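Handout for the seminar on molecular recognition.
Each group receives one record of this type.
Step one: identify the two inputs.
Step two: read the structure output and locate the region that could contact 2-oxoglutaric acid.
Step three: write two sentences on what you found, then compare them with the reference statements printed after the record.
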Amino acid sequence: MSEFRVPAVDIGPYVEPEQFTDADRAAVARAMDEACSTVGFVQVLGHGVPPSVIAGLADAADAFFGLDPDAKRAYQLPPDVNRGYTPPKSESLSLSLGVESASKMNDFFEAFNVGTAASEFPGLDLPESDYSENVWPSAQFRASVWAYYAEAGRVAHVLTRVFADALGLPSDFFEQFTDHSLDVMRMNNYALPPGTVDLDGDLTGMGEHTDYGIVTVLWADQVAGLQVLGADGAWHDVRPADGALLVNLGDLTAQWTNDRWRSTLHRVKPPIVDGTIERRRSAAYFHDGNVDALIETISTCVDEDHPAAYRPVTVGEHINAKLRGSRAGVLYTDSDRNARRVRAARS
Ligand SMILES: O=C(O)CCC(=O)C(=O)O
Ligand SMILES: [Fe+2]
């Protein structure tokens, strides 16, 4: 069996263009094309996010998740508002895929979501239901989380420029779809108090899913748990290398590229040590695109051997159908292919 590996790509030549040549950038774009075509997950180096900003994010998440359950629940919002606190076992990501979890148990992660708000674009009439305002447990939390949010957003934007080059498109191709991008960051905490862990039950940290948008920038600590479904049909453990951010493609990119690039299935199954869950943390920054952008397969990705596989969809339509699955328990039904891949991997 061939060894599963998440390729590393150093995007330094795009982050600090003046220090590199066009040939350096072309090499990055080629490496990205290879990674996106084969795995759909990439270890990104040279991203330029200061370690102090990452440490600030981790500290803010630790401080919040360390509060009493009641204090955390004060920041819970209705399921149709994708912001604020999500208690453990209130979502089921596999429902976003059209698959019910074997035990019908919800995922045990808890999360805190922040995102882009309509008020950031006073000149545009953006729907508040998508671009909801944030809630902030403290000024310190807000400053630290927002500093990282800005950095992750910058990295996501740089990545779309790498993608455009890798796909042979004009470098600014994605700008028209992302100038008021509906971005959301989910900070995840995988932990259950000692004594509450039912070792015989189905312990899913986060159920299998694909991400919904264009690209995800994922910071994760190095505790095991993240698993990626390889082209070989098996689940593989993935841990970020020192200093790396994990990057994976979402459904909209698979759709744009007619599956030349992969929106890779992944899930989280944190290890159990001495009868308790080894705590794990992550923060997924979802770069989803403008709510009103129409995603149509890129013409260079369609030919006789690769007929167009998807009907055009707006970002808002797709993201909301998916969120109704994960957050509101309404099974998503437009993804037979992915649901089949998950069932095949289970058996
Ligand atoms: O915790 C992780 O490493 C993955 C999280 C994830 O897949 C998500 O939030 O969509
Ligand atoms: Fe994900």
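Reference statements: Residues 186, 188, 206, 211, 218, 220, 226, 266, 268, 282, 284 surround 2-oxoglutaric acid (ligand 1) (CB under 6 Å). The chain has one domain: 8-346.
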